[in-house]
């Protein structure tokens, strides 16, 4: 065939073919031969031209879900490396080969062994094609079991260079990882379906908190893997210079997350999924087999951290607004002082002068209807550079956007200029001593008194309250409302109002927050944002802005990673040699960070999947920050706790700041509950 159909069509046809001829619970040699025959006719070994890499991954996905080990990726690589005559035989299915990294210790670990005729040995720069005679199997491995064999002398050999063999190994690793990710994803889906119907102790198990928590965690891993695979495939199709790094990021993420997804699914399925009549055991064994094969094909270029130390950069994921990004970076560079810091007033003026504060608003309100992509770029770049404009950017996304959507014309005239000029100093009056993540149960009351609103209550953990001019305050105006969130109203209250008392406290991060006491505070109707008892709509309408703000966590973590890599370039001993535990730990962080970038990017959309990606990004970002802090302690030792350490002051600060990312805006436990319900699990 001249080229593949679309990857979606190829994946669908592969799934249909496997459903007809393959049974994971009984993977016989005859069944394997039948699949290979049908696969050759369907063109699985003849993927050429535009879209071929995407088609390969679509087939790998179908194979993973069916727990079928046909080595399609091996053929994909071989047809690009072998002479034309041999390549044609592979395409027809007459030469049925598996790729192995070496012949050390003999020929072992042969995938789909009963059908093989040849092995292609991909060394570091060399290629050798050998006929093979399979002599046995390796007991205990995933069925159909790996084979062992004897080889005949090479019938073709070539020295092609390490760059060529590295690219081939990376392509194989990506396909194997995609196949493993698909197998894990299918078992996860079966577990979710099971949790919706299985009853224990008089309840559907999907209502149990433990089931919801682990299901949500697995869903985040599955979503992250899918995004990284998609990114790597797109880069490979475009022959991008960094496609191999993108592939390695996907491989690393899947190598670490797929096992957790499998185990979470088995915990939910219980004994139902433990015995061989269920597809679970076969998916479990096949996924582990794929991950083991993937590890054996490590490229000479090394892991992610090795490549970063050699000069690569963590790739931008998702693209979008790149012209604007270049403009923002140029402005930031012009603001940077010799010591690498920024003067706050100059930074604020740069935002104001260019109209970047409120640029997404309609022109009649001072904006230019800029797309969400540009807001995300602005947040990422200023956060990454550590320019001190956090409050100015947050005032747009939380206060300004809400007033644009819900404020009266008079409120828009009063407040929007303050936001556009970077002069809106506010704090969030949401959390209370008895209602942290459970905002709908807040107790601060606002009642009508002589044509005004009298507000009484207490807010706590209120960041920047000591320097704020206004409190963005949620209060209960209807104590009898059902559900409770229907009785909440949003107020904007000047901190100078009589009855407002602010008592500062110091957070673990060193930031100043406060307890805010509200004792019979009187405000007029002009302080109400939106409708009375409609505050929940105002609060939730800020979700788009919160999705942009989440990109700041990813930007901060990327900057810390880049700082550590830069320190490693200056001091080659800091991160140890290739293969060291320090580099492996940073590989893991980099892969998870790339998945976070993908989820943040996905959350900027308007679909149901985007709305689910938002809490996923929130959970992953917070917990990655916590884990990264621990990794830095292991990697940097005492320097991780010194403000003048090898990687600068931020490793120490990240460790103290990280818990807030897990707590703020609703704890990760609550966010996982939202994710679980988004997957269809019952309340």
From TrEMBL:
Keyword Flavoprotein attributed: yes
Stretches assigned to the Acyl-CoA dehydrogenase/oxidase N-terminal domain: 324-422
Keywords for this protein: FAD, Flavoprotein, Oxidoreductase
Pfam families to which the protein is assigned, alphabetical: Acyl-CoA_dh_1 (PF00441), Acyl-CoA_dh_M (PF02770), Acyl-CoA_dh_N (PF02771)
Residues covered by the Acyl-CoA oxidase/dehydrogenase middle domain: 427-520
Residue ranges constituting the Acyl-CoA dehydrogenase/oxidase C-terminal domain according to the UniProt record: 161-287, 533-679
Cofactor(s) needed for function: FAD
Family matches, as PANTHER family: ACYL-COA DEHYDROGENASE, ACYL-COA DEHYDROGENASE FADE29
Family: Belongs to the acyl-CoA dehydrogenase family.
Record-given protein name: Acyl-CoA dehydrogenase
Top-level taxonomy: Bacteria, Bacillati, Actinomycetota, Actinomycetes, Sporichthyales
């Amino acid at each position: 065939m001249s080229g593949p159909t679309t990857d979606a069509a190829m994946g669908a046809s592969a799934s249909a073919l496997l459903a007809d001829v393959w049974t994971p619970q009984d993977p016989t040699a005859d069944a394997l031969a039948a699949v290979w025959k049908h696969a050759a006719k369907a063109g699985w070994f003849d993927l050429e031209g535009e879209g071929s890499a995407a088609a390969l991954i679509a087939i790998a996905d179908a194979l993973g879900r069916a727990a079928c080990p046909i080595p399609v990726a091996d053929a994909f690589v071989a047809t690009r490396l072998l002479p034309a005559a041999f390549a044609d035989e592979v395409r027809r299915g007459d030469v049925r080969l598996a790729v192995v990294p070496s012949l050390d210790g003999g020929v072992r670990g042969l995938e789909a062994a009963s059908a093989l005729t040849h092995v292609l040995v991909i060394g570091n720069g060399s290629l050798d094609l050998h006929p093979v005679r399979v002599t046995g199997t390796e007991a205990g491995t995933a069925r159909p079991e790996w084979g062992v064999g004897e080889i005949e002398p090479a019938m073709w050999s070539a020295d092609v260079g390490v760059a060529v063999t590295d690219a081939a190994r990376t392509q194989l690793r990506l396909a194997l990882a995609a196949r493993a990710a698909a197998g894990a994803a299918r078992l996860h889906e079966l577990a979710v379906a099971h949790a919706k119907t299985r009853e224990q102790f008089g309840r559907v198990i999907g209502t149990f908190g433990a089931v919801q928590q682990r299901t949500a965690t697995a869903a985040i891993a599955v979503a992250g893997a899918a995004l990284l695979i998609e990114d790597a495939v797109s880069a490979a199709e475009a022959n991008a210079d960094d496609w191999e790094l993108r592939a390695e990021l996907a491989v690393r993420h899947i190598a670490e997350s797929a096992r957790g997804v499998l185990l979470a699914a088995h915990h939910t399925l219980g004994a139902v999924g433990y015995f061989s009549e269920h597809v679970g055991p076969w998916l479990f064994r096949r996924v582990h087999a794929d991950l083991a094969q993937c590890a054996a094909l490590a490229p000479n270029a090394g892991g992610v951290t090795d490549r970063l130390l050699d000069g690569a950069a963590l790739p931008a994921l998702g693209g979008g607004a790149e012209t604007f990004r270049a403009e923002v970076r140029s402005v930031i560079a012009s603001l940077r002082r010799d010591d690498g810091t920024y003067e706050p007033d100059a930074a604020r003026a740069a935002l104001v002068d260019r109209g970047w504060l409120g640029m997404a608003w309609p022109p009649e309100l001072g904006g230019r209807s800029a797309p969400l992509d540009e807001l995300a770029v602005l947040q990422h770049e200023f956060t990454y550079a550590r320019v001190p404009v956090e409050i100015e950017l947050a005032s747009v996304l939380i206060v300004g956007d809400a007033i644009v959507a819900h404020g009266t014309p008079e409120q828009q005239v009063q407040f929007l200029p303050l936001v556009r000029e970077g002069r809106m100093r506010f704090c969030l009056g949401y959390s209370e001593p008895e209602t942290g993540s459970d905002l709908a149960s807040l107790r601060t009351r606002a009642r009508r008194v002589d044509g005004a609103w009298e507000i009484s209550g207490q807010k706590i953990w209120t960041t920047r309250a000591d320097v704020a001019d206004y409190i963005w305050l949620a209060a209960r105006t209807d104590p009898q409302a059902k559900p409770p969130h229907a009785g909440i109203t949003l107020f904007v209250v000047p901190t100078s109002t009589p009855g407002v008392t602010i008592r500062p406290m110091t957070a673990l991060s060193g930031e100043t927050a406060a307890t805010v006491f509200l004792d019979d505070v009187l405000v007029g109707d002009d302080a109400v944002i939106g409708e009375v008892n409609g505050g929940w709509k105002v609060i939730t309408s800020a979700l788009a802005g919160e999705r942009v703000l989440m990109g700041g966590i990813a930007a901060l973590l990327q900057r810390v990673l880049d700082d550590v890599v830069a320190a490693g370039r200056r001091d080659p001993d800091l991160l140890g040699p290739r293969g060291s535990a320090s580099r492996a730990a940073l590989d893991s962080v980099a892969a998870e960070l790339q998945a976070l970038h993908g989820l943040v990017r996905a959350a900027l959309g308007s679909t149901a999947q985007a709305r689910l990606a938002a809490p996923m990004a929130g959970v992953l970002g917070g917990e990655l920050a916590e884990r990264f802090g621990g990794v830095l302690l292991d990697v940097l030792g005492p320097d991780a706790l010194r403000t003048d350490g090898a990687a600068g002051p931020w490793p120490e600060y990240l460790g103290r700041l990280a818990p807030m990312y897990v707590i703020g805006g609703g704890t990760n436990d609550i966010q996982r509950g939202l994710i679980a319900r988004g997957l269809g699990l019952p309340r």
